[in-house]
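Lab notebook page, bench 4
Experiment: in silico fold of construct C2
Operator: M.H.
Input chain length: 338 residues
Purpose: comparison with the prior construct
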Amino acid sequence: MIELIKTIEEQVISAIAELDSLRSFEEARQKFLGKKSQLSQLSGKMRDLSIEEKKEVGALLNQTRRSVELALDQKYQEIQTIEDTKLINTGDRTLPARLPRTGAVHPISIIRRRAMESLKTLGFVMAEGPEIETEFYCFDALNTPADHPARNEKDTFYFDSGELLRTHTSSVQIRTMQKETLPLRIMSPGSAYRRDEIDATHLCVFNQLEGLYVTESVGLAELKGVLEAFFMNLFGDDTELRFRPHFFPFTEPSFEIDIKLKVSGKEDKWIEVAGCGLVDPAVFDSVAQLRGDETFSSKNVSGFAFGMGLDRLAMIEWGIADIRDLITGDVRFLQQFA
């Protein structure tokens, strides 16, 4: 068998040297190294050999395979070089060169950076948390009852482990209060996931930016002042916005914020971009229990929280009528930001 292996190696190396195209190269690789190759068939016959013969024959088969693979790799490089040279020589060198396309930052990245810079001027600092969360951090600690629709599998992406893809970055607020001290003023950007039907204003994966301010005493006046300053700074002093009473399990009272979307050639319309409110005392008490101290007890602190969709802020800023344009990757759409 040893002599046969050596003979096969010589024949295969010789055949590889005769290859002259990439197509023939692919066929040769299957013929010489595939499951039906002579080397593979010889490997199957090793079970009939003695232990000593198996060691010698096995070592020779491995060496032969490496030799064949090396010969194939070298021949591939040789054929590829020839093909590239042919392609270069057939081109018209008198044609004008193609100018490189100018890249650009994606509109979501632009609005995220601007929004964070705006909040930074108001004293907010960065805070992050995991996208794969537990029900405790995403719902329980945020005063979300067990029968709340958001906890249903029709609304939230669950794993078999019981963990889930966070439905909002509010979970970062709990994780931050768990380990930080007062006063607390954070912003938490990141992805959120919900089983929403995708349409002109909704995505199942969207970009969110939340804020939280906790101190000994703060009220609605501060909340409204901070958010008005933020949106005016982001979109200009002529920005039209309104606060509407709403309900969120983790804030009381709660509001939604609408901003008038102005798209060229279309009638202006209000679009909801953010939710906000004073932090519900039950949330603070959950944090106090989690920490095992009274630092964030509702008896000692108050605060406000807000969350907004960066995708919708981008729609406001550039008059984008359909939120899906932000995720399709259509170069014709993205070129306007270059």
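Observations: The longest strand covers residues 205-215. The chain has two domains: 2-90, 107-337.
Next step: discuss at group meeting.
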